[in-house]
Predict the 3D structure of the following.
Amino acid sequence: MAETTRQKLVKLFQSQAGYKEEKAKGNNWTKYSRWFDNEAWQWFNTKKQGAEWCSIFVCWCLCQECVGIGKNEVLKLLGIPSVKNNCAAAVPYLWDYLTAKGYRVANDKAQPGDIIILNSKKHVGYVESFNGSKINTMEGNKGDYVARGSYSKNSSYISGVFHLPLEKYDKEEIKPEPVVIPEPTAPVVPALTQAKIDELAKAVINGKYGNYPERKTKLNNLGYGDIYSKVQARVNEILKGNNSVSSQPTAPAPSTPVTYEVSATGGLWLRKSPPSNTNNVNGNYAGAKIVCMNWGDDFVETKRSNKWSYGTYKGKTGWTCNVYLKKK
């Protein structure tokens, strides 16, 4: 789960624990004032190096990029009227801004990331945690350091606790789309066409399938079921001189059908028609599905139109996208 804006703010001010002001350069010299005077000049009404810096520390944390609000948006969040009148570096003014926004809550409602104003509105820090009786804090300019403090929830030292609506800056976590794995398609054993029988018979005569019993095993393993007897019968007819081919109607074919191997690992659909634009490989624009051809199976092409081919697969005829076919 993504970190909330409040969690980022708490992590940031906790990381600053132990920071000490730069006494060698001058009293109240800090990196926090330097950031506003240089990188965010005119965020406050005047330059702040050398000024008391407890409120400057609070504003610096809110403005940092890692928190995700943005220094211009923080001006609106704190209720600062305008940059030239931004006196939030002075705790009494910060009190007035936060009170006008309606952020004050009861001490026993304190949450991590809340702003806590202390010592009769002269000091300020962040709530780090609240255990029901003690409010634990992180404060800048506490004895020249960023340091922790702890106060009873009823302590008169606490002037007030302010709960900023940081949740509105939380970023919605982007979740990846779930991966949908299609259900496997059951293998289909199609009917065997006469044209295929003739093709296999000629291949047998040319020695492609070897001799019996090797021939029987290879033919029956082609995916058409037990076809050995049909093919062998046609072989015998051809060898006896009956070379006529069945008059069974087929789609228009070139002089020599070409056999391809299905190369789509997830299978390839045989369809009733190609898309109107046969250069479009998207099957959603083609005709209804007939059968899913399995990877590695044979498809015999008898007609081609750009990226779509018409032909036969296990006795069924139709169209398929030929970019997923590999010539054998």
About this structure: The longest helix spans residues 194-205.
